[in-house]
Amino acid sequence: MTDKEINEIRFLAEKWLLDGRELLADPEDVRRDCNGIGAEWMGKYLRGAVSALNPTLGPAAAIHDRRYAIGGDGWARAAADMEFLENGLKSADARYGWYDLRRYRVREQARKFYTVLRVAGGAAWRKEKEA
Fold first, then answer.
1. Helices 3-15, 58-70: crossing angle, 10 deg rounding
2. Structural domain boundaries enclosing 20
3. I need a labelling partner for 50 at 20 to 30 A (CA). Which of 20, 37, 62, 64 fits?
4. Residue 25 in contact with residue 37, Cβ under 8 Å?
5. What is this structure's pTM?
6. How many domains does the chain have?
């Protein structure tokens, strides 16, 4: 992740008042822990494509990546996943007006990604705890 990308994510997280935005304060932490939207096993090109198709969810995903890097118990993972969903919904509402159909597409994507996190995120959580 470039400095420009990190600054953009940090700026949007602050502007949209996302929960956990303080986790993006150190650019080195962000560079180390954040890989875009998707799991490590997807590879950088597929994650890049998913991230490019869902740019509004980038700040929420970065905060979520930082939470997973910090780790904790199962309750902390559930809270991190719920925070992603809530931040994704906030991001959609902040970026697009109620009249813009893109708002509802982003909200639906946030819900879909949340479901994937709950079903398949355990492996990434365990991997981060072992590291």
1. 100
2. 3-130
3. 20
4. no
5. 0.93
6. 1
